[in-house]
Specification:
Radius of gyration of chain B: 14 Å
Number of strands of chain A: 1
Number of helices of chain A: 14
Strand order of the largest sheet of chain B: 1-2-5
Strand content of chain A: under 5%
Strand content of chain B: 25-35%
Order of helices and strands of chain B: EEEEEE
Oligomer: heterodimer
Distance between the termini of chain A: 40 Å
CATH topology of the largest domain in chain A: Heme Oxygenase, Chain A
Distance between the termini of chain B: 56 Å
Largest sheet of chain A: none
Helix content of chain A: 55-70%
CATH superfamily of the largest domain in chain A: Heme oxygenase-like
Chain lengths: ~325, ~60
């Protein structure tokens, strides 16, 4: 696959796509490489490959397996209200990644977490922007407004992806786009591929909105815990600020997404209800997959990266 | 005399559970006289008094289980 992108190798054969573990490294990396061509691409790879018919056929085969597995494996709800209900209750004794990092996360674990999440946060809000032309009226206006906030309200220094790069600098990480792709395990790629899948298909616009709602609803309390982790470990002011900003911003976004984006879309296209619920359910499923993996590694004192980070943290702030 | 658009009433969204939603930007004067501001397009004001980022909502109104 990588060699194909460079111009001199075969695409994965149908039987390889059919045989590969669906949440495993090979399938998820192949899908990630296909999707990245729609964002910023790769050095040395022709931008024309974004619409290469052979590559799109391969992508479709990979997507069919991924989507089929998600529909089968995620715990499903028929209504949006039921799908969201669990997310709107805060567990008193939560056991997720953000709880772990708040209570006992060490700086090396926060660095690993940031390196892995950089695959999304350095293009934060981008996969969701693809849904805009597919919405109308209230849903469109509200979605655009939240995206405008994600993109810094017109100010480059407030773009959330930029705030995340500053967090990475505080943690002594390399902010180059795509730098930690090779370090990321399949479970990380799954979470990013999910939003690219939903974002790139108009047929999955309901699922994309469900994904966005899930992120916005869970972000605020999770970000508070991560901000506390950054403060406790002395990660640096930009590292704290990224999560502090998300506590407040996403408390608003959650309201707007639930009332106006989901509410508006359901008014406009009521038949999308199950798709929106599926988007929520699939997001919860993939985040749990990643969370379980990170916690299993960290509790065993292991790195959760394929290639460990350089040890020296050099504070620049 | 027709009203100019700026004379249109400002809509505030009230919910039984959850923050007060206002069109931004807003300035909020606190009890001690300090004024805080938010320039977001929409602003969520805490009504449950549990927020640790008062006066802004931080989702602390949610049920706990």
């Amino acid at each position: 696959m990588e060699n194909h992108l460079r111009g001199d190798g075969p695409l994965p054969a149908e039987r390889d796509v059919a045989a590969a573990p669906v949440y495993g490294d090979d399938l998820q990396l192949a899908l990630y490489l296909c999707y990245e061509l729609h964002y910023r691409g790769f050095a040395g790879v022709s931008p024309d490959l974004e619409w290469d018919p052979a590559l799109l056929r391969t992508r479709a085969a990979l997507e069919e397996r991924f989507l089929g597995a998600l529909r089968a494996d995620a715990r499903r709800h028929d209504s949006v209200e039921d799908a969201l209900a669990g997310l709107l209750v805060e567990p008193v004794d939560g056991t997720g990644v953000s709880h772990f990092l708040r209570d006992k996360g060490e700086l090396w674990q926060l660095r690993e977490y940031a390196a892995l999440r950089s695959l999304y946060h350095l293009k934060e809000a981008d996969p969701h922007a693809w849904v805009l032309p597919r919405l109308r009226g209230r849903a469109k206006a509200a979605m655009a407004a939240v995206e405008f906030d994600e993109y810094g309200g017109g100010r480059a220094d407030r773009v959330h992806a930029h705030l995340f790069a500053e967090l990475m600098t505080d943690l002594g990480l390399d902010t180059t786009y795509g730098r930690y792709l090779d370090a990321a395990r399949a479970e990380v790629l799954v979470t990013v591929n999910l939003m690219s899948l939903f974002g790139l298909h108009r047929a999955l616009r309901g699922a994309l909105v469900g994904h966005f709602a899930t992120v916005e609803i869970t972000s605020s309390p999770g970000s508070r815990r991560l901000a506390e982790a950054m403060r406790r470990t002395g990660a640096g002011p930009a590292a704290e600020h990224f999560y502090d900003e998300h506590v407040e911003a996403d408390a608003v976004h959650e309201q707007v997404v639930r009332h106006d984006v989901i509410g508006g879309l359901l008014e406009d296209e009521p038949h999308l209800e199950r798709d929106i619920a599926f988007g929520v359910d699939a997001t919860v499923f993939t985040e749990d997959l990643l969370g379980d993996r990170l916690l299993a590694d960290w509790r065993a004192g292991r790195s959760c990266l394929r290639t460990p980070l350089p040890q020296d943290v050099t504070h620049t702030s | 005399m027709p009203n100019s658009p700026s004379d249109a009433p400002r809509r505030v969204t009230v919910q039984r559970k959850g923050p007060l939603l206002l069109e931004g930007p807003v300035e909020v004067e606190l009890e001690d006289g300090t004024v805080v501001s938010s320039d977001r397009f929409r602003v969520a004001l805490c009504t449950c008094r549990r927020s640790r980022r008062h006066p802004w909502c931080d989702t602390s109104h949610r049920d706990r289980a």
